[in-house]
Design brief:
This protein is of the alpha/beta class and about 325 residues long. Helices cover about 60% and strands about 10% of the residues. A 5-stranded parallel beta sheet has the order 2-3-4-1-5, sandwiched between helices. Helix 4 links the parallel strand 3 and strand 4. The protein starts with a helix and ends with a helix.
């Protein structure tokens, strides 16, 4: 690879080739975001092409990496590179021997035996490698939460980090969202009392209880519980987080293989086994379109809660009604 010595340092996101290896979606997305951000910091007009494996047909990579009249910087992202066809893999390997100037190629690879030839070729070519493994151990998730708070410039007590993992589970995207939310809303050190207030709260009026009622289509009960939660001072961001978590869990389980055992699903989806059983009961009546509509409603409510709306409480009520309606679409 012509530019190995100068650009493939582990801390250089503008290396000619970045190889993100693993199956943790959040970490894979962050690996891509880091490269794109660095490229756009270097050239605001950077062209980003984010491709699924089926979009990269034989000859496509040559077209994407051909010299531009304006010599613009380009980032080409190939997701699930282990699923590329044999002919396309040949194209990628040939490109690795003579990478184009001002082009950054990002390959996302699961890291298993499938597509191992491409993985080996990328490593041999001197790829900058980013590890994105699934975090299956509680200790790993706890370390992830601590790292999130450090990256956000905020300290959190060990008890608070543990309470957050216990409350949310093993979904890294939701854990990262919770860390960001607490950092934005809370001044000073995040302690266990703060985590309990946001993500556990009073048993009779938690955001998760509102979410459980909404995702099962019980709009009237969910609205009643929401109003009580607001009356006793439940933090609004914690409620939107709970609504989003409830809908996402249904979406994830709906797309999981049928007939899989709860324990296997728990490992695959990042949920505790008891939650798998509960979500299975909640997802009756849901459709893919319903999940999409509910997530849009939650996103709108979240924007209102974070300052984009004149009446955040009303926005939450609208989201609850939308979720309950989506739960009864089938």
């Amino acid at each position: 690879m012509a530019r190995n010595s100068a650009n493939t340092a582990a801390d250089d996101p503008l290396a000619p080739l970045t190889l993100a290896v693993g199956q943790e979606d959040l970490l894979l997305d962050r690996a891509v975001q880091q490269v794109v951000a660095a490229a756009r910091a270097s050239d605001a007009d950077t062209d980003v092409r984010d491709l699924a494996p089926e979009a990269l047909q034989p000859g496509t990579l040559a077209e994407l990496t051909s010299p531009s009249l304006f010599a613009e910087r380009k980032v080409v992202v190939v997701r699930n590179a282990h699923d590329l066809s044999a002919e396309t893999v040949k194209d990628v390997k040939a490109y690795l021997d003579a990478p184009a100037e001002e082009i950054t190629l990002v390959l996302l690879h699961a890291g298993g035996a499938k597509g191992k030839g491409l993985l080996d070729a990328a490593r041999k070519a001197g790829a900058r490698e980013v590890a994105c493994p699934k975090m299956t151990k509680p200790a790993d998730r706890l370390a992830f939460v601590r790292g999130e708070f450090r990256a956000l410039g905020r300290s959190a007590t060990p008890e608070a980090c543990q309470a957050l993992v216990d409350s949310i589970g093993s979904d890294l995207r939701e854990l990262a969202s919770a860390c960001a939310q607490l950092t934005a809303d809370v001044e000073g050190t995040v302690d266990v009392a703060v985590v309990a207030r946001y993500y556990t709260g009073r048993a009779e009026a938690t955001g998760f209880e509102v979410a459980d009622l909404a995702v099962t289509g019980r709009a009237a009960e969910a609205l009643e519980r929401l109003r009580w939660a607001l009356a006793v001072g439940q933090p609004l961001p914690g409620i939107t987080f709970a609504l989003a978590s409830g809908v996402r869990s249904i979406g994830k389980l709906a797309s999981a293989p049928r007939g899989a055992r709860p324990g296997d699903l728990a490992r695959e989806l990042g949920m505790p086994p008891w939650k798998i059983d509960r979500v299975r009961q909640q997802m009756r009546g849901w459709t893919g379109d319903g999940v999409s509509a509910a997530l849009r409603a939650v996103a709108e409510a979240d924007a209102a809660v974070k300052g984009g709306g004149a009446d955040p409480a009303y926005a939450l009520e609208k989201a609850v009604v939308a979720i309950a309606r989506a739960a009864r679409q089938r």
